[in-house]
What we know:
The complex is a heterodimer of chains A (about 350) and B (about 500).
Chain A: H1 2-7, H2 28-31, H3 36-52, H4 59-84, H5 92-109, H6 114-137, H7 143-162, E1 167-168, H8 172-176, H9 188-206, H10 208-218, H11 220-225, H12 230-256, E2 258-259, H13 267-277, H14 289-308, H15 313-337
Antiparallel strand pairs in A: 1-2
Chain B: E1 10-19, E2 22-32, E3 37-41, H1 48-55, E4 63-68, E5 71-72, H2 78-84, E6 86-89, H3 101-106, E7 112-113, E8 116-117, H4 119-132, H5 148-161, E9 166-170, H6 178-193, E10 197-201, H7 205-211, E11 214-219, E12 222-227, H8 234-242, E13 260-269, E14 277-282, E15 286-291, H9 297-304, E16 310-317, E17 320-321, H10 327-332, E18 335-338, H11 342-346, H12 353-359, H13 362-365, E19 366-367, E20 370-371, H14 373-386, H15 402-414, E21 420-424, H16 432-447, E22 451-455, H17 459-465, E23 468-473, E24 476-482, H18 488-495
Parallel strand pairs in B: 3-10, 3-11, 6-9, 9-10, 15-22, 15-23, 18-21, 21-22
Antiparallel strand pairs in B: 1-2, 1-4, 4-5, 7-8, 11-12, 13-14, 13-16, 16-17, 19-20, 23-24
Amino acid sequence: MGSELAQTDVGDTVTGGGEQKETGRFKLSNLFGGSTGPLLGLIALCIVLSFATDSFLSLRNFLNILDQITVLGIIAVGMTFVILIGGIDLSVGSVLALSMMVLGYLNIVAGMPMGIAIIGALAASAVVGIVAGILITEFKVPAFVATLAMMSIARGLANMITDGSQLIGFPPWFNLSAIIRHGGFLTTTVAIMLAVFVVAILFQRYRAGGRSLYAIGGNPEVARLAGINVKRSTVLVYMFCAMLAGLAGVTLAARLDAVQPSIGIAYELDAIAAVVIGGTSLSGGTGGVGGTIIGVLIIGVLRNGLNLLSVSPFLQSVIIGLVIVLAVAAETFKHRKK
Amino acid sequence: MASPDAPALLSLRGIRKSFGPTEVLHGVDLNVRPGEVVALLGENGAGKSTLSNIISGAIQPSAGEMMWQGATYSPARPKEAIEGGIAMIHQELLLLPHLSIAENIFVGRYPMRHGRVDRAYMEKRASQGLQRLGLNISSKRLVEGLSTANQQLIEIAKALTLDAKLLILDEPTAALGGAETELLFKQVEQLKSEGVGIIYISHRLEEIRKIADRIVVLRDGDKVQEFDSADVPVRSIVEAMVGRSLERMFPEIPSPGEETLLDVRNVSASDDSFSNVSFRVNAGEIFGIAGLVGAGRTELVRAITGADAIASGQVFLKGQEVTPRTPADAIRNGMVLVPEDRKLQGLVLDHSIEENIGYANRQSVTRSGWITKGWVRKFAGECIEKFGVKGQGWQDADEMSGGNQQKVVLAKWLARDPEIVVLDEPTRGIDVGARSTIYEIVVELASRGIAVVVVSSDLEEVLGLSNRIMVMADGSPQGILDRTQANDVSVMELATQFN
């Protein structure tokens, strides 16, 4: 894999937050925004699990992991941008549930075609994000509080749609999109996640808007004086984060073939964990989607491996907590040495 | 009143202080006797703050000795100075708004009784302190909402409950109105009669003449003059303050063009930091804005460049009304602000120089919204070369010296080819070599027909660089001097006028 990639010009492209110090020579970590530590951790984890279990190292299991991380992966991309500008979004789990309930209502209850139902679900999510963004920029509500409020409001709205009960009866192709592996390989939902990854990385590296997010997170006053519209960018970031949570809700609805308003509780914490493990600093300005993908994979591989090893879910959660501490401590240590 | 031959409360002998290779205090002597107000005067950067920080234990002198009440005194920390009876009242008040006055006075040393905070005792002691200063407010009241003068007095009351024998007041009246100033002066007289020694730092020469018993003038780290009475003409004090220091080299200043590029009409701030300011700057002109700290210069230039809100007034650029509401507005119309604090406003310190230059020059490093590191590097490389930055594009901004950081900040904004450039304190905290490069850049801008506004606290710099100088005091322009009529004394006289 390394030799093929080395032919391309990856070594000379923009990486996150100026971590890259040399040019010319290809470094695998460049692809993931300089998050060498988490990448090494992921590789080590895969090697250990390959020896510890019979079934870990197989294409089928790998594809299973991709299926399992679809929802988290899509949410974590949006969360990365929010954290990159120095914010936080606690509402993504509730927004996911709201999106699913709007989807179910429009398609199953109101009888609209899936296409319109999906657009409706994403639009409802976008509204939540825009409101949070405006609360933060115009009314100076701290992001933590604004999105905490939106978490409660979105959850309440999701429950109100069906008065708390679940909806079933999507068209058959919808569920199949999460099951059928095209070419024996990718389900539609996994393909959506991979597409989100690619677009997000391209945006972050090669679009002026993406580079501006680093400036905003690094120092909003510097960004503002440099002529960047910080308020508008902030609202857009919260909007896209909410829309990605909504999109994750659509893929989850496809996998479950049903929607219910109590789903997605505490997903925001998983997403924040993936972002932090991936090396994006909670104070903003450094990190990126590349690291987050590794963070998502670490959580996905760890859960999968621990399941294969029949470790109890309670202990799994302890282990994931330890991984977060380890990742952040390593990052802090690296910074202090610098 | 203090008798002239009373033993000194505090006495400093040959105090020197160096920061790195630069010495900022060159052997200063100072005596303060009980019941005496010694005014410490000097321009910005003369060494007043360094000296008062040494006395209050915030920093340690490199050489020299201090005697306090007849014993050797060398505080390692502010706490030791406070325990010894020396208290400094800072310009920025350090009170906790959501706690009561009594709690503020005793924070960090709450009186304990039976393992609990003894509120009754605390409030009683605090009330005594307030009464001593003639303050008729309850010590249980929250600090929030008190007038600035009263907050200042609470800081003093705090010092008094610590049995302070020497107070250092740093610009105590900077935020006070006339009546509040009178109140403060009455309390200072009261403290004097109780034998408290006071070091009084202020730029307001008229009030110094009212309150001080002696005047000590510092300039460039030396004590240049000592007046044994405050009854001296303001002019003599100003002359001692500005004096003649080492000549610096300024490039030849080009003559301005005819066309007015920047026209500011009757602008006022929403928070009274400046009001009713008008001025015009022509193409190729360097327009200096001088004044003391707190005169409203930075607030003014931030407002006209859209960084802060304007309450009223208009800004015309090239004859068209623009009055920018955001920095982006100003930039779009060809006006850039190089802000005062490069670390907080100019650079993202832990990002690379390339990235930093790229942030302010999107149109040069993007093609229909796309951007690559290659384009950023190429563009930044040109800027780095053009402005003589000593460093590589991939280096983080915080790896560089102050002078180089400032060149990066200049490069960042000047690379846009603006027509109006506003520089706020362009050489603060940078060494002499880098300074002359920056002067050359400023003059080069003017000779290319750009209108340049330079705000500086460095009097010599404003005098050496500007075609015309506007002097501000207390938020109002006191006059605009032509290069030929401006000199250090005429500028300082205007800058110390308060209405």
